[in-house]
Amino acid sequence: MTTTRRRRVGIAGALVGAASAGVAAAALAKRYAVGRIRLRPDDEASEPFGELRGRERTLVTSDGKVLHVEIDGPDDAPLTVVFCHGYCLSLESWHYQRKDLRENYRLVLWDQRSHGRSQRGGSDDSTIDRLGDDLAEVIDAYVPGPCVLVGHSMGGMTIMALADRRPELFGEKIRAAALVATSAGKLAEITLGLPALLSKVVHKVAPTTVSMLGKRGALVDRTRHAGSDIAFLMTRYMGFGDSRNVSPTLVDFAESMIRATPTEVVADFYPALMNHDKLSALHVLGPVPTAILVGDGDWLTPPEHSRAIAAALPKAQLTEVPDTSHLIQLERPGIVNDALRDLVKRVEL
Questions:
Q1: DSSP strand E in 43-105: where?
Q2: In this structure, what are the phi and psi dihedrals at residue 80, rounded to the nearest 5 degrees?
Q3: What is the distance between the alpha carbons of residues 112 and 102, in angstroms, rounded to a whole number?
């Protein structure tokens, strides 16, 4: 072997060795980070996440999709609270609110199409407007009297879509609304906490990347379980705030809902979220009491989006919760529950 060839082989070997060392170091750091979180005291270790059950119902929508619905609490309650969950979650994400309100109020919880136990839709009907139509059909079928709507993230957008398409429901039928960690539009402009230039790059490549992953959804889904530690860390740091006391069991619960959402569904709804714009429909909520809640560390629907909603609804009550991120109803259930109880009491008959 010539001196030049030996030098090239040596350089290549060094590069491979450095890369291998880097991968090993990253894997070790990941295990260390996950291990540290999982070894923390866990007050929620015995919490029955995903085990609360109501009276199950099946709704076939006007376009033929089957939605999973659960009714909880006393049937003779004069007021119904309807919960609309967020993107990549399910009705189980309202665990603490259901647990707190089910004794005194009639609750309707439903899995939005393609999420949870509801039937998969296609890319053509994966729109916020269609979700608004689904909500209208849920109300028509399972809410005999007045109600309060509660929506988190995409669920809040669903409520806005309903306001846009069925404004006559707000007032007599829909007496109040809670918009939790959501947005009226311009999600494509969020920075995710990144520097401005890097954020622009991410937004430029994200649609193509998400679309590509969606086309290979089955393959991606088979590999998502292998990256469970990475998913755990991403859920912990994107979904929850700065508190060091976030329960590992709670993070696992949230991550399991996200992982259960097929990659194709993630890709199908992504354009709808990025193109969502319902600021002009917010005036419909003006006559009804409205609570707006957001974590001050929410990277996915930042506080300025909730402030924009509050600016359009000057009578609404805006609550910004310190050291809290996007999964506010799981991370700070006491604050969210108190806000919902206060809202319900304002409109009780």
A1: 55-60, 66-72, 80-84
A2: -110, 140
A3: 21
